[in-house]
Protein backbone atom coordinates (compact mmCIF):
# COMPACT_ATOMS: atom_id res chain seq x y z
CA UNK A 1 0.00 0.00 0.00
CA UNK A 2 1.40 3.42 -0.89
CA UNK A 3 1.10 6.36 1.44
CA UNK A 4 -1.89 8.42 0.39
CA UNK A 5 -4.29 10.87 1.96
CA UNK A 6 -7.82 11.88 1.05
CA UNK A 7 -7.20 15.37 2.43
CA UNK A 8 -5.69 18.27 0.52
CA UNK A 9 -2.35 19.74 1.76
CA UNK A 10 -4.25 22.74 3.13
CA UNK A 11 -6.67 20.55 5.09
CA UNK A 12 -3.78 18.52 6.49
CA UNK A 13 -1.75 21.57 7.52
CA UNK A 14 -4.44 23.57 9.30
CA UNK A 15 -4.82 21.34 12.41
CA UNK A 16 -1.05 21.31 12.89
CA UNK A 17 -0.85 25.10 12.57
CA UNK A 18 -3.60 25.39 15.19
CA UNK A 19 -1.57 23.21 17.56
CA UNK A 20 1.57 25.27 16.97
CA UNK A 21 -0.35 28.44 17.82
CA UNK A 22 -1.67 26.99 21.09
CA UNK A 23 1.82 25.89 22.13
CA UNK A 24 3.13 29.47 21.74
CA UNK A 25 2.70 30.70 25.31
CA UNK A 26 2.62 34.36 26.31
CA UNK A 27 5.24 35.19 28.92
CA UNK A 28 3.73 37.50 31.56
CA UNK A 29 6.59 37.35 34.09
CA UNK A 30 9.97 35.74 34.68
CA UNK A 31 8.29 32.47 35.71
CA UNK A 32 4.69 32.97 34.60
CA UNK A 33 3.07 32.14 31.26
CA UNK A 34 -0.45 32.15 29.81
CA UNK A 35 -1.89 29.89 27.13
CA UNK A 36 -5.16 29.05 25.38
CA UNK A 37 -6.77 25.75 24.38
CA UNK A 38 -7.84 23.86 21.30
CA UNK A 39 -11.56 23.01 20.91
CA UNK A 40 -12.77 19.62 22.17
CA UNK A 41 -16.15 17.92 21.80
CA UNK A 42 -16.31 17.03 25.51
CA UNK A 43 -15.91 20.68 26.51
CA UNK A 44 -12.75 19.99 28.55
CA UNK A 45 -9.11 20.87 27.94
CA UNK A 46 -7.19 17.97 26.38
CA UNK A 47 -4.69 16.65 28.92
CA UNK A 48 -1.87 16.22 26.43
CA UNK A 49 -2.17 19.89 25.51
CA UNK A 50 -1.84 21.28 29.04
CA UNK A 51 0.98 18.83 29.79
CA UNK A 52 2.90 19.91 26.68
CA UNK A 53 2.32 23.58 27.53
CA UNK A 54 3.59 22.98 31.07
CA UNK A 55 6.78 21.38 29.73
CA UNK A 56 7.35 24.34 27.40
CA UNK A 57 6.82 26.79 30.27
CA UNK A 58 9.33 24.90 32.42
CA UNK A 59 11.81 24.73 29.54
CA UNK A 60 11.59 28.47 28.97
CA UNK A 61 13.13 29.00 32.44
CA UNK A 62 15.90 26.42 31.91
CA UNK A 63 19.25 26.78 30.10
CA UNK A 64 18.83 25.93 26.39
CA UNK A 65 21.59 23.30 26.52
CA UNK A 66 19.55 21.22 29.00
CA UNK A 67 16.71 19.38 27.22
CA UNK A 68 14.06 17.65 29.33
CA UNK A 69 14.75 14.00 30.15
CA UNK A 70 11.70 13.24 32.32
CA UNK A 71 8.38 14.58 33.55
CA UNK A 72 5.77 13.49 36.05
CA UNK A 73 2.34 15.09 36.02
CA UNK A 74 -0.97 14.78 37.86
CA UNK A 75 -4.26 15.86 36.31
CA UNK A 76 -6.21 17.46 39.15
CA UNK A 77 -9.32 19.06 37.64
CA UNK A 78 -11.03 19.34 34.26
CA UNK A 79 -9.91 22.44 32.40
CA UNK A 80 -12.37 24.90 30.83
CA UNK A 81 -11.87 25.59 27.12
CA UNK A 82 -13.05 29.21 27.28
CA UNK A 83 -10.69 30.23 30.10
CA UNK A 84 -6.98 31.04 29.70
CA UNK A 85 -4.52 28.80 31.54
CA UNK A 86 -1.80 30.35 33.70
CA UNK A 87 1.43 28.38 34.09
CA UNK A 88 3.36 29.18 37.27
CA UNK A 89 6.90 27.80 37.23
CA UNK A 90 8.90 27.11 40.39
CA UNK A 91 12.67 26.76 39.99
CA UNK A 92 13.29 23.82 42.29
CA UNK A 93 17.01 23.32 41.57
CA UNK A 94 19.81 24.22 39.18
CA UNK A 95 22.82 21.96 39.66
CA UNK A 96 25.96 21.41 37.63
CA UNK A 97 24.21 19.02 35.23
CA UNK A 98 20.51 18.94 36.13
CA UNK A 99 17.70 21.47 36.51
CA UNK A 100 14.32 20.67 38.07
CA UNK A 101 11.15 22.68 37.62
CA UNK A 102 7.64 22.37 39.03
CA UNK A 103 4.72 23.84 37.11
CA UNK A 104 1.16 24.50 38.23
CA UNK A 105 -1.37 25.00 35.43
CA UNK A 106 -4.07 27.20 36.95
CA UNK A 107 -7.59 28.30 36.02
CA UNK A 108 -9.78 30.48 38.23
CA UNK A 109 -7.27 30.29 41.05
CA UNK A 110 -7.16 26.46 41.17
CA UNK A 111 -4.59 24.09 39.64
CA UNK A 112 -5.87 21.78 36.90
CA UNK A 113 -2.47 20.07 36.56
CA UNK A 114 0.78 19.96 38.46
CA UNK A 115 3.96 18.74 36.80
CA UNK A 116 7.59 18.24 37.77
CA UNK A 117 10.18 18.03 35.00
CA UNK A 118 13.92 17.41 35.05
CA UNK A 119 16.39 18.76 32.49
CA UNK A 120 19.97 17.62 31.89
CA UNK A 121 23.01 18.67 29.92
CA UNK A 122 23.88 16.19 27.19
CA UNK A 123 26.55 13.93 28.68
CA UNK A 124 28.38 10.70 27.75
CA UNK A 125 27.63 7.42 29.51
CA UNK A 126 26.38 3.86 29.11
CA UNK A 127 24.47 3.55 25.84
CA UNK A 128 22.23 0.49 25.50
CA UNK A 129 18.55 -0.11 24.80
CA UNK A 130 15.90 -2.66 23.93
CA UNK A 131 15.42 -3.36 20.24
CA UNK A 132 12.32 -2.46 18.26
CA UNK A 133 9.97 -5.36 17.50
CA UNK A 134 9.15 -6.23 13.90
CA UNK A 135 6.48 -3.95 12.49
CA UNK A 136 5.13 -3.18 9.02
CA UNK A 137 6.20 0.13 7.51
CA UNK A 138 3.96 3.10 8.30
CA UNK A 139 3.27 3.55 4.58
CA UNK A 140 1.56 0.13 4.54
CA UNK A 141 -0.78 0.90 7.46
CA UNK A 142 -4.10 2.72 7.06
CA UNK A 143 -4.25 6.26 8.42
CA UNK A 144 -6.91 7.00 11.03
CA UNK A 145 -7.33 10.43 9.43
CA UNK A 146 -8.37 8.84 6.15
CA UNK A 147 -10.50 6.12 7.75
CA UNK A 148 -12.48 8.46 9.98
CA UNK A 149 -12.50 11.26 7.43
CA UNK A 150 -14.47 9.07 5.03
CA UNK A 151 -17.33 8.64 7.54
CA UNK A 152 -20.44 10.79 7.53
CA UNK A 153 -20.46 11.21 11.30
CA UNK A 154 -20.08 14.46 13.28
CA UNK A 155 -17.61 13.04 15.82
CA UNK A 156 -15.41 11.54 13.11
CA UNK A 157 -15.49 14.76 11.09
CA UNK A 158 -14.57 16.84 14.14
CA UNK A 159 -11.70 14.52 15.07
CA UNK A 160 -10.18 14.59 11.58
CA UNK A 161 -10.56 18.38 11.38
CA UNK A 162 -8.48 18.70 14.58
CA UNK A 163 -5.94 15.90 14.00
CA UNK A 164 -2.46 17.43 14.22
CA UNK A 165 -0.85 13.96 14.01
CA UNK A 166 -1.18 11.13 11.52
CA UNK A 167 -2.03 8.01 13.59
CA UNK A 168 -1.77 4.50 12.14
CA UNK A 169 -2.71 1.45 14.23
CA UNK A 170 -0.79 -1.61 13.08
CA UNK A 171 -3.35 -4.06 14.49
CA UNK A 172 -6.48 -2.00 13.86
CA UNK A 173 -7.86 0.96 15.77
CA UNK A 174 -10.54 1.00 18.47
CA UNK A 175 -12.36 4.06 17.12
CA UNK A 176 -15.31 2.18 15.63
CA UNK A 177 -15.27 -1.23 17.34
CA UNK A 178 -13.48 -3.18 20.11
CA UNK A 179 -10.64 -5.66 19.63
CA UNK A 180 -12.40 -8.99 20.14
CA UNK A 181 -9.13 -10.84 20.68
CA UNK A 182 -8.69 -9.29 24.13
CA UNK A 183 -4.95 -8.70 23.70
CA UNK A 184 -3.43 -5.64 25.40
CA UNK A 185 -0.56 -5.40 22.93
CA UNK A 186 -0.72 -2.51 20.49
CA UNK A 187 1.63 -0.87 17.99
CA UNK A 188 0.93 2.55 16.49
CA UNK A 189 2.87 4.64 13.97
CA UNK A 190 2.56 8.36 14.63
CA UNK A 191 3.94 11.50 12.99
CA UNK A 192 3.18 15.24 13.14
CA UNK A 193 1.33 16.48 10.07
CA UNK A 194 3.76 19.33 9.54
CA UNK A 195 7.40 20.29 10.17
CA UNK A 196 8.21 20.95 13.82
CA UNK A 197 10.23 24.14 14.19
CA UNK A 198 12.53 24.42 17.18
CA UNK A 199 14.91 22.22 19.13
CA UNK A 200 14.45 19.20 21.35
CA UNK A 201 12.26 21.05 23.84
CA UNK A 202 9.55 21.54 21.19
CA UNK A 203 9.95 18.06 19.67
CA UNK A 204 9.61 16.47 23.11
CA UNK A 205 6.62 18.65 23.97
CA UNK A 206 5.01 17.47 20.74
CA UNK A 207 5.45 13.84 21.76
CA UNK A 208 3.82 14.63 25.10
CA UNK A 209 0.85 16.17 23.30
CA UNK A 210 0.45 13.23 20.92
CA UNK A 211 0.78 10.29 23.30
CA UNK A 212 -1.97 11.21 25.76
CA UNK A 213 -4.64 10.18 23.24
CA UNK A 214 -3.12 6.69 22.89
CA UNK A 215 -1.88 5.65 26.32
CA UNK A 216 -5.03 4.01 27.71
CA UNK A 217 -6.01 2.17 24.52
CA UNK A 218 -4.24 -1.08 25.57
CA UNK A 219 -6.51 -1.17 28.64
CA UNK A 220 -9.58 -0.89 26.38
CA UNK A 221 -8.17 -3.45 23.98
CA UNK A 222 -7.71 -6.09 26.68
CA UNK A 223 -11.21 -5.43 28.08
CA UNK A 224 -12.86 -5.75 24.63
CA UNK A 225 -13.92 -2.11 24.71
CA UNK A 226 -13.73 0.62 22.07
CA UNK A 227 -14.01 4.38 22.04
CA UNK A 228 -17.62 4.09 20.85
CA UNK A 229 -18.64 1.85 23.79
CA UNK A 230 -21.85 3.30 25.23
CA UNK A 231 -21.36 4.84 28.68
CA UNK A 232 -17.56 4.67 28.58
CA UNK A 233 -15.95 7.29 30.84
CA UNK A 234 -12.20 7.90 30.71
CA UNK A 235 -9.97 10.49 32.36
CA UNK A 236 -6.19 10.64 32.66
CA UNK A 237 -5.01 10.66 36.27
CA UNK A 238 -1.23 10.92 35.95
CA UNK A 239 1.44 10.74 33.31
CA UNK A 240 5.17 9.98 33.38
CA UNK A 241 7.57 10.19 30.46
CA UNK A 242 11.30 9.64 30.02
CA UNK A 243 13.31 10.67 26.96
CA UNK A 244 16.38 8.53 26.37
CA UNK A 245 17.59 10.09 23.13
CA UNK A 246 16.71 12.88 20.73
CA UNK A 247 13.29 12.54 19.13
CA UNK A 248 11.89 13.98 15.90
CA UNK A 249 8.14 14.43 16.23
CA UNK A 250 7.75 15.14 12.51
CA UNK A 251 9.25 11.77 11.56
CA UNK A 252 7.56 8.39 12.00
CA UNK A 253 7.61 7.05 15.57
CA UNK A 254 6.45 3.58 16.59
CA UNK A 255 4.57 3.32 19.89
CA UNK A 256 4.85 -0.21 21.30
CA UNK A 257 2.18 -0.41 23.99
CA UNK A 258 0.76 -2.68 26.68
CA UNK A 259 -1.38 -2.61 29.81
CA UNK A 260 0.23 -4.22 32.88
CA UNK A 261 -2.92 -3.99 35.02
CA UNK A 262 -6.44 -2.64 35.43
CA UNK A 263 -8.43 -2.68 38.67
CA UNK A 264 -10.47 -0.46 40.97
CA UNK A 265 -11.82 1.65 38.11
CA UNK A 266 -8.27 2.48 36.99
CA UNK A 267 -6.06 1.18 34.19
CA UNK A 268 -2.34 1.49 33.55
CA UNK A 269 -0.88 1.97 30.09
CA UNK A 270 2.80 1.65 29.21
CA UNK A 271 4.68 2.41 26.00
CA UNK A 272 8.11 2.45 24.42
CA UNK A 273 8.69 4.84 21.52
CA UNK A 274 11.05 3.91 18.70
CA UNK A 275 12.32 5.99 15.79
CA UNK A 276 11.79 4.37 12.40
CA UNK A 277 15.45 3.24 12.34
CA UNK A 278 14.84 1.19 15.51
CA UNK A 279 16.32 3.61 18.06
CA UNK A 280 14.51 3.66 21.42
CA UNK A 281 13.84 7.34 22.09
CA UNK A 282 11.35 7.42 24.99
CA UNK A 283 9.29 5.46 27.53
CA UNK A 284 5.89 6.37 28.97
CA UNK A 285 3.47 5.30 31.69
CA UNK A 286 -0.01 6.63 32.35
CA UNK A 287 -2.81 5.66 34.73
CA UNK A 288 -6.37 6.65 34.01
CA UNK A 289 -9.86 6.32 35.37
CA UNK A 290 -11.86 3.94 33.18
CA UNK A 291 -15.52 3.36 34.01
CA UNK A 292 -18.14 1.41 32.11
CA UNK A 293 -21.65 1.11 33.65
CA UNK A 294 -22.08 -2.60 32.91
CA UNK A 295 -18.56 -3.63 33.99
CA UNK A 296 -18.07 -4.17 37.74
Automatic annotation (TrEMBL):
Keyword Hydrolase appears in the UniProt entry: yes
Superkingdom: Bacteria
Coiled-coil annotated spans: none
InterPro entries (UniProt xref): ACOT8-like_C, Acyl-CoA_hotdog, Acyl_CoA_thio, HotDog_dom_sf, TesB_ACOT8-like_N
Record-level GO BP terms: acyl-CoA metabolic process; fatty acid catabolic process
Catalytic activity: a fatty acyl-CoA + H2O = a fatty acid + CoA + H(+)
GO molecular function terms listed in the Swiss-Prot or TrEMBL record: fatty acyl-CoA hydrolase activity
CDD domains with a match to the protein in the record: Thioesterase_II_repeat1, Thioesterase_II_repeat2
Residue ranges constituting the Acyl-CoA thioesterase-like C-terminal domain according to the UniProt record: 152-290
Pfam short name (any one): 4HBT_3C
Keywords: Hydrolase, Lipid metabolism
Residues annotated as domain Acyl-CoA thioesterase-like N-terminal HotDog: 43-120
Subunit and interaction comment: Homotetramer.
PANTHER family: ACYL-COA THIOESTERASE, ACYL-COENZYME A THIOESTERASE 8
Family: Belongs to the C/M/P thioester hydrolase family.
Name listed for the protein in its UniProt record: Acyl-CoA thioesterase 2
Organism: Flavimobilis soli
Amino acid sequence: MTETSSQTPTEAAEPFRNLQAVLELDRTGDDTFVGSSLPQLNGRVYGGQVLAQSLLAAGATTPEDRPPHSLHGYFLRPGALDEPITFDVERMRDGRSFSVRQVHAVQNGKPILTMTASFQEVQPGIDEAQTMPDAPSPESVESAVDKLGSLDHPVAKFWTSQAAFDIRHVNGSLYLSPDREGDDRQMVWLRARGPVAGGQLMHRAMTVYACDQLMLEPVLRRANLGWATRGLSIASLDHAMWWHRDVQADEWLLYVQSSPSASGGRGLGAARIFAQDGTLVASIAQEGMIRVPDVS
